[in-house]
Automatic annotation (TrEMBL):
Keywords: Carbohydrate metabolism, Glycoprotein, Golgi apparatus, Membrane, Signal-anchor, Transferase, Transmembrane, Transmembrane helix. Its main location: Golgi. It comes from Glareola pratincola (Collared pratincole). Its EC number is 2.8.2.-. Coiled coil: none annotated. GO terms for biological process: carbohydrate biosynthetic process; dermatan sulfate proteoglycan metabolic process. GO terms for molecular function: sulfotransferase activity. It is a single-pass type II membrane protein. Belongs to the sulfotransferase 2 family. PANTHER family: CARBOHYDRATE SULFOTRANSFERASE. This is Carbohydrate sulfotransferase. InterPro entries: Carb_sulfotrans_8-10 (IPR018011), Sulfotransferase (IPR005331).
Length: 165
């Protein structure tokens, strides 16, 4: 699509005709991660000033979606999967397999272009860590988080997410 804009231009700044033309000319790939794992990652990276994971979650919930950081904001509000027809949705934990498939579909040699991914090996660690962090939360916090991320949990295949219970 001819670039008539600066790299920082938001898609929402264009009219619908231009948006449809731009989106139709690209292969659209969306990378997603379990929202609870995104919260844990944000906490571990010191994104909040809370001393415990439970208090961090309480701060996130108190801020609501309008004041949420992009780090833990629901994905549906960031990437608009109901409006944008993504060609591929790649789930964290399966990057190597899914990116290999994408490269083969593009006619590229998948094996030689892919870096070594640790997401598959990290699944067990994240599973254990998720269970530990989840056990720190009150039943009310668990329910509120499930509600906070309800659209992500409906839109994406996070069947093993602790928030789906």
């Amino acid at each position: 699509y001819p670039r008539r804009h600066a790299p920082e231009t938001q898609l929402s700044e264009f009219n619908m005709t231009d948006i449809e033309a731009m989106l139709g000319s690209y292969t659209k790939v969306l990378f997603v991660r379990d929202p609870f794992q995104r919260l844990i990652s944000a906490f571990m990276q010191g994104m909040g000033s809370s001393p415990s994971f439970s208090s961090f979650v309480q701060d996130v919930l108190a801020g609501g979606q309008h004041y949420a950081s992009e780090t833990w904001k629901p994905l549906v509000s960031l990437c608009r999967p109901c409006l944008v027809q993504y060609d591929y949705v790649v789930v964290f934990g399966f990057l190597r397999q899914e990116l290999g498939h994408l490269l083969r579909r593009a006619g590229l040699p998948a094996g030689s272009l892919l870096p070594e991914f640790t997401d598959t090996q990290a699944r067990w660690t994240y599973s254990w860590l998720s269970e530990q962090m989840f056990s720190e939360l009150s039943l009310q916090q668990k329910k509120q988080l499930s509600h906070f991320y309800r659209w992500d949990l409906s839109a994406f295949p996070f069947s093993s997410s602790l928030l789906t219970d």
